[in-house]
Amino acid sequence: MLNINHMKTLIINSLIILSVLLSIQTQAQNTKTTDNYVVLSKKIAQLKPIILSAKALKSENEASFGQFVVVICGKEIGDITDREKMDGFIEMAKEANVQIVACGFSLSKFKVDPSQVPDEIKIVENGILYNFQLQKKGYYSLSL
C-alpha cells in the first residue's frame, strides 16, 4: 500500500511530465514553416505561367509562402535583354514577389552582354548550381 508521501510524489511527477509534454506539443505547433520555390526554365515564354503559379501558391497559403525564384538559362537567355519582351514579365514578377535570375554561364556561352540585362534581374555565375544550392536549403524545385 502506498503511503501519502509516495502518492504526493507520484501526483507531482505526473503533473510535471504532463506539463512538459503539453509544452513540447505547443512548441511543435508554433514552429513556423516556410515554403520556398525555385524553377529552372529555358524559355522566356514560360515566365507568365510560372509567375501565375507563384501567385496561386501564395494565395493558397500566404502564411507559409516564402521566396519564389525563377532561373533562366539556355539558348533563349538573350531574350532577357529585350525590354519589349521582358518589361511585362518583370512587372508581373515584382507584383508577385518573384525573383528572376539569369545564368551567367548561359550569358557567356551565348555571347549575351551582361550589362544589357535589366537591373531587376539578378545574375548568378551558374544557374544550375544555384538551383542545386537552393534545393539544399530546402526549396521545392522544378525544371522546365
TrEMBL record:
Signal sequence region: 1-28
Q: Which SUPFAM superfamilies match?
A: DsrEFH-like
What are the record keywords, sorted?
Signal
Q: What is this protein called?
A: Sulfur reduction protein DsrE
Species for this entry: Marivirga lumbricoides
Lineage of the species this protein comes from: Bacteria, Pseudomonadati, Bacteroidota, Cytophagia, Cytophagales
